[in-house]
Design brief:
The chain is of the alpha/beta class. The chain contains 7 helices and 7 strands. It has one domain: 3-Layer(aba) Sandwich (Rossmann fold). Helices cover about 40% and strands about 20% of the residues.
Length: about 160
Amino acid sequence: MEYTRLGMRARKRVALIAHDNKKDDLLRWARENRDALTKHELFSTGTTGELLEKTLGLTVGKVESGPLGGDLQMGARIAQGEIDFLVFFWDPLEPQPHDPDVKALLRIAVVWNIPVACDDASADFMFSSPLMSQEYARLVPDYQSYRNRRLRERPNGG
């Protein structure tokens, strides 16, 4: 597989998401890290975004609630290069009705090689990294070459 580098600005586009049983944990973490978060552009799924705006007094770009497709919308934004970093406090002990969407979101974050923090310890380590405040070029597979090769392999382009 061939690789390419995709740049991230110093001001990252950060998605903040939490399952219901983890919303309080994310809100606590966000309050403790408010100063760091103000340096970045914030996005979230619906309910979490509303809570973050109220708690932090910051503007948060919102998509639908997770169970209504927000996880998939956020995954699409990652694939389109509109999200640089994912903080996703997911609940490993509670089954979710939209578990396939959650898995898809985490998968697409790995496909596009964006940092993912799934708990406050990981988020603390990542947000304290000097890379959070500087430009960064992440390595990703060259998916255009992959797409072109797949098209050549298909008879009649279909």
